[in-house]
Each structure stands twice: as C-alpha cells, then as structure tokens.
Amino acid sequence: MNQTLAVWLLIALALVSANLPFLTERVFAVLPWKQGGAVAVKPFWMRLVEVLVFYALVGALGFAFESTLGNRFAQTWEFYAITLSLYLVLAYPGFVYRYLFKRHPRLRV
User: Fold this and answer.
1) pLDDT digit string (tens) for 75-84?
2) Distance (Å, rounded) from C-alpha 10 to C-alpha 102?
3) Count of H helices and E strands in the chain?
4) Domain around 35
5) How far apart are CA 90 and CA 84, in angstroms?
6) Does the keyword Transmembrane apply (predicted)?
7) Can you spell out the DSSP letters for 14-34?
8) Cα 86 from Cα 15, distance rounded (Å)
C-alpha cells in the first residue's frame, strides 16, 4: 500500500466512524441499546463515548500505517488535541442530523 492510498483510506474511515454513532441506535454499530429489555434511544453520553472510542481506533490504525510505511514519530499532547478537534469537526454532520435537523411529516397530496 502506498502512502497516498493509506492517507485517503484513513480520512474516509475517520469520516464514516465519526458520524456512525449519530446515525444508528446500536452501540458501536453492533449491539442494540436496551433498557429494561426493550430497545431504547441511545443517550448523548453514550454517543460521545462511541466517538471517543472510534477516535482511538482510527488513531491506532493511523499509527499502524505510519510505522508500516516509514518511521514512527513521537507525538505530544498538541498533536492529540488537534486531531481530536478535527475528528469532532468530521462528526458534526452526524450531530446536526441527529439533534438539529427538524424532521417534518411528509405532506399528503
């Protein structure tokens, strides 16, 4: 795999994984969220936990790509603060769709 493909693959995976918690009611897109045995709507804190876990997974994959394609460089807290901010920006469309987009019933003709 060349470096260009790895970068674009990582960006696409980050975009999909950042929005996934807001588009599905399943925990980590696999397990249904249940309360009292019935399927329920996931709370915001659970969606935030999912975003942070997906951020860690995408970051780990990025470090794997970096070490496979060349030398791995040590990062400081600034790197993680900036990448987390960028990841949250990628998650914004899913947040808007879930919490800010008004869904109106279809008009009957």
Assistant:
1) 999 999 999 9
2) 31
3) 4, 4
4) 3-100
5) 10
6) yes
7) HHHHHHHHHH-SEETTTEEPE
8) 10
